[in-house]
Amino acid sequence: MADDKMQLQRWELKYVIPDEVALAAREFVRSYLELDEYGAKRADLSYTIHNLYLDSQDLAIYWGTINGNKNRYKLRLRFYEDNPNAPVYFEIKRRMNEAILKQRGGVKRHAVESVLAGHIPAANELVSGDGRQLVAIQRFVELMQHDQAGPIAHVRYDREAWISPTDNSVRVTMDRNVYISPEFVTRFSERMDDPFCAFGKLVILELKFTGRFPDWFKEMVRIFNLRQGSASKYADGIARKGESYFYPGHGHPDPDWSGAAAERRAERLTRLDNLLSKAA
Q1: Confidence at residue 6, expressed as pLDDT on a 0 to 100 scale
Q2: Strand (E) positions, the chain?
Q3: Three-state SS string across 58-94, please?
Q4: Which one of 87, 147, 187, 234 counts the least CB within 10 Å of its CB?
Q5: Which CATH architecture has domain 9-279?
Q6: Radius of gyration of the chain measured on its C-alpha atoms
Q7: pTM of the entire structure?
């Protein structure tokens, strides 16, 4: 998968919607954007993404999302297929206030374990000669070591992506079939053990833009009566399946459900449960 069209800094609005609304929205979006090259090759217009999320033993990164920390980040390894010759991408997705900042660097698969051990890859182990990718990997290693983070969860989903034909300022994605499972090793297999469908048949629609909010985005929100809300495949997936599954060794007790964090978690789950019941 090419890295050229990734928006490194953007604003991102999320909407969790029934599939019938997503199909209608697709026809609206088609008037402004074009399907990206990977989805265009497939009958369902989507390609599959696999993310292996890293976190600390006490799930500090997860709880940062639940608490709504303004400046937070996620660490993940992204891959697209089982092929041992296919690259793996080290990604940092950081939220600073309302802005999304992404750093990403790809390495050849045989070099992944070395990087996870704290070593910086050699030039011939990188996917690209772009210096920004090496900087991203260096920063990933720093954060990983600071958090003492390791593999926690495998998340996979099917992505339908629409992009601007002229520049990289606007992007619309629709993610379906979001599954999560505990995973404490780096096997990079499409197979998932004990997968859980985090959002049911709902679709996560994301409107992504680098400048001002496009006028046609406003029209789209109005026409389809879209209600913005939170939707984290990692955090909501863990919360819905249960935190105890994602502590390495499954030996950690369930948290003490009291205090502000528990209230925020309950609010997220209630909102998602209401959307799932309406879509049933």
Answers
A1: 54
A2: 9-17, 34-35, 47-55, 71-79, 88-96, 99-107, 150-163, 170-182, 196-197, 203-209
A3: CCHHHHHHHCCCCEEEEEEEEECCCCCCCCEEEEEEE
A4: 187
A5: Alpha-Beta Barrel (3.20)
A6: 18
A7: 0.93
